[in-house]
Specification:
The protein is α/β, with parallel strands linked by helices. It is built from twelve helices and 13 strands. Strands 2-1-3-10-4 form a five-stranded mixed sheet, with helices on both faces. It has a five-stranded mixed sheet with strand order 7-6-8-5-9, sandwiched between helices. The chain is globular, with a radius of gyration of 21 Å. Ligand PBG binds next to strand 8 and helix 8. Its cofactor is dipyrromethane.
């Protein structure tokens, strides 16, 4: 064997990629999928758990600060304590920080919200007066708008804590992201997946943001292998809508973008991005909805145009920040 060949066969000098994550079961499971994908692609990778204030402070997010779930992970990334940060995308503020990039949006989970109710009930079967737990203003507003006479109760804590309130009988039902349940293997608890016509999910719900430092060119290239272009286009459109409305994760704003198949003039199938959005009054007395379809490479533009349509309909007046309704999505 020549010296040349020996060098090629020898194990490559490898940098172990440190992946920063929050400590919850959901967060470590999500980050674990990124670690596994990197290892499968031939890289060395490990998880580093970062404890954030959002994990130890029980109060509503409005009081402890927007971006509380992601800020400390990002600090660890900027300080060089980790190389990669994995976030639930919807927890990231829309304002971009030029020092970091979302190098990958892995294939997204089903973005719908899910009802977890006692006795296998669906929404329409819950009697008036039923106690339904959810803190997100977006969910509260859309549930109230259904006019079912539900009694909406505040809800926080990790997924197990939330489900526990149905099991204990404290609540008749809760509404949470289906993606969270899916990731921790609890889809069996879903009694109804809420269709977007009833309940639009939070912009970027069910998607992950895999971030690294903007200067880390080699890593950006590695992480790009995990990117799913359709998931990224959808998330870009939904978050552009949120940004254009100048709203954050505490606003009663919902959006969903989906890749759909359309026919061109010659009857050929091609893919487009369909985006639906809503802005609601906090008490559900009014819900503005709009939709738009356009080419996938115009995702950002589509989201912004849709937001402007909602603004023309009066969205700004509805979604005003109001301490009374403060809570996270
Ligand atoms: N802000 C909490 C949060 N952030 C991400 C998820 C679920 C997973 C996801 O949407 O990707 C949840 C819980 C929930 O909304 O029920």
């Amino acid at each position: 064997m020549s010296a040349e060949a020996t060098r090629i066969d020898a194990p490559r000098e490898q940098r172990t990629l440190r992946i920063g994550t929050r400590g919850s079961v959901l967060a470590t499971t999500q980050a674990g999928t990124v670690r596994d994908a990197l290892i499968a692609a031939g890289h060395a990778a490990e998880l580093v758990v970062i404890t954030t204030k959002g994990d130890i402070t029980p109060g509503p997010v409005q009081r402890i600060g927007v971006g509380v779930f992601t800020a400390e992970l990002r600090e660890a990334l900027l300080a060089g304590e980790v190389d990669v940060a994995v976030h639930s995308y919807k927890d990231l503020p829309t304002k971009q920080d030029p020092r970091m990039v979302v190098a990958a949006v892995p294939p997204r989970e089903d973005p719908r919200d899910a009802l977890v109710a006692r006795d296998g009930l669906v929404l329409g079967e819950l009697p008036a007066g039923s106690k339904v737990g959810t803190s997100a203003p977006r969910r509260r507003a859309q549930l109230a708008a259904m006019g079912l006479g539900l009694q909406l109760e505040p809800l926080r804590g990790n997924i197990d804590t939330r489900i526990g309130k149905v099991d204990s009988g404290e609540l008749d039902a809760i509404v949470i992201a289906r993606a969270g349940l899916s990731r921790i293997g609890r889809l069996d608890r879903v009694t109804e997946a809420l269709e977007p016509v009833q309940m639009l999910p939070a912009p970027s719900q069910g998607a992950l943001a895999v971030e690294c430092r903007a200067e880390d060119a080699a890593l950006i290239e590695i992480l790009a292998q995990l990117d799913d272009p359709a998931s990224r286009a959808a998330v870009v459109a939904e978050r552009a809508l949120l940004a254009e409305l100048e709203a954050g994760c505490t606003a009663p704003v919902g959006a969903i973008a989906e890749v759909v198949e359309s026919l061109d003039d010659d009857g050929r199938v091609f893919e487009e991005l369909s985006v639906r959005g809503c802005a609601a009054a906090h008490d559900g007395s009014d819900v503005l909805r709009a939709s738009i379809v356009g080419s996938l490479d115009r995702a950002e533009e589509l989201g912004r145009a849709l937001a402007r349509e909602l603004l023309d309909l009066g969205a700004k007046e509805l979604i005003v920040d109001d301490e009374q309704w403060a809570a996270d999505d």
